[in-house]
Each structure stands twice: as structure tokens, then as C-alpha cells.
Amino acid sequence: ARPRPTTPSCHRSLRDRLPVPVPSSNHEWLASAVEAPLEPDLPICDPHHHLWDRQPARVAPRYLLDEILEDTGSGHNVVSTVFIECGAMYRPDGPEAYRPIGETEFVAGIAAMSASGVYGRTRVAAGIVGTADLRLGKAVGEVLDAQIAAGGGRFRGIRRAAAWDADAAVPSHRTNPGPGLFFRDDFRAGFAQLAPRGLTFEAWCYHPQIPDVTALARAFLDTTIILNHFGGPLGIGPYAGKADEVFAQWRTSISELATCPNVVAKLGGINMEMNGFGWHERSRPPDSRELAEATRHYYELTLEKFGADRCMFESNFPVDKASCSYTVLWNSFKRLTAGCSAAEKAKLFHDTAARVYRLAGPAAPEPA
To answer: What is the pTM of this model?
Structure first.
């Protein structure tokens, strides 16, 4: 009898050949708080996540397509996502102002892979938010045009963080913005280049800086500003042990910001170490009920002031993975909205983000 031929490696099953996701450094800890997804059919657009590789200081040193799909595929109906800049894969040479375009090129490639459908129905990075140094003033327009071109039709906006505090115990953003970034004349000259190109602006700051966002929004009513992470309420350094005082200051500032019709709020990104809840220091991670109850006052006040038309839930993954799993996080959001109508839930979990970032509707179900 003739020997049976072996199956060439190129004909092995796709599952056998797909890369194995790299686990986070705390994956065993997270696995001690497993939950079934609540309302698993509710369509979700996750409008805030990052992608990177070789980041040893992060709880997830690698977070590429395989890693995010493992999270989004854990039971919730995540139909699309929006990538937010994080300083990944910059060009190693060329003019400094153009180096961040490397990040957009990198993410556009992942977005194209996801859009092929080979990896499932979730459309990762259906929208891309990059960065540019708006302090370049009017000259930043050429950089913005290059970013739009690199995004392959998916580029939606810019984030240039202002997160800074006078106390050195509070880490500044990696771009070292210093105080008063949003008031600088050169920054505002660059900011003025966004609206003519239909680009949004992501405002990432700490809670004492929320009035700076309000002033910026009132000066540029034709630009949509998206507040990240509730405006960064702090709970470390000089703010540790002052949760009530921080919330009172935050409540006053966020209520004033909400009077600006061109500002939209992201609900999430409040489980970072800097927020001071200390989830990462516990022997077991929080469950969705604990997360919801500990942070409910921030969600409810923001939703009351902005309304569902100007609010969207965000994961901030894998940064918030330091405190909870993806399934637990979205379960906490669903617990927080238990009293909302179906129409309000549709806006909070999908429609507001899809409108603001100009994304397509929910993907069609896969054939049975």
C-alpha cells in the first residue's frame, strides 16, 4: 500500500495557524472573577481603546488584533470599535511633526484586516483617532491632511492630551503638556485647523483642568470635543483620601462643561490606578456590581447633565484591564443603565459613538 500523504502546513485549519493571544500580566487574577455577559445581544460600539506592542510597563504588554478580539469576543455584542492614539509605532525618522503618522498607518492595517471579515464580525478600529502637535499652529494643517490620507477613510480626529498637575506625585501625560495647554495661542491656532477638515478633538485632562476644556469649547463652537474618562477625577498624590472633595469640585466643573452643546462625554476610563479606587491592589478583582456601585455617582451625574445623545460608554482597554476584565466592565455599564429605556441604551452603547465618529450601523448577524 502507498504511504498516506501528510497534510501540508498550508492546508491545516485556520484555527491551528492563528496566533495565540498574549495574556495580560494579571490574567490569572482577572480569571478569579468570571461573569456571564448581561444582555448579550445589545449592540456595542467601543469608542475608546488602544493598540500597541512591546510595552513591558503595561499590564498588557501586547495588545494587537488577537488580544482585542479575545476581549471583544468574550460574550458582549461588540460590533465596532474606535482606536485612540497612544504613541504606538511612530515613524523612527523624518520630520518630527510627521512621525505620529506611523501610528495611523499601523492601525489602518489592523482595521483593514478586521474589515476583511476573516477574523469575525467585530470591526476593530472602524474609526481612528490619531495625534498631531497642535502647537505648530496653522502649519499643522499639512500634518492633519497627511493623517487623513494615512487613515484610509477611517481617520476621525485628534487627541493632544493636557493631563498635567502641579504636584509631581501625579504623573503628567507622556507628551509633557505643562500647564495651560488649551489656552496657548499656538495650540489654538492649530486647533482651528480641525473643524474645516471635519475632525473631532479628544480632551484628556485631569479634573482640575475641566474648566480649561469648557473655555476651549466656547471658543470653538464649530468643533466637536469629546471628553475622555470623565475628565480624569484623581485619587492619588495630594488627592488621595479626598474622594468627596474631588467629586464636589468635579461636579461643579462637569455641570458647567455640559452647557457647551459641542461637547460629548465618554463614560468610562475611571478604573485606572490614578483614579484611586485601588482595585488592582486587592486579592480578587471587583465584580460588576462592585464596579457599578463604587462609580455610580460619576455616571449618573454625567448622564443627567449631558443626556444620552451626548454620552457613550468606553472601555479604555487595555489600560482599565489593570482593574477588571472586559466582560465585567461592560456588565457594570449594563447594571448602571438598568433603569434606562431601550432607546437610551441604544444611544449609550452604540448610537452616540457611531454618530460622533461617523461609523456604519451594527454588523449583520452571521448566518446560522
So the answer is: 0.93
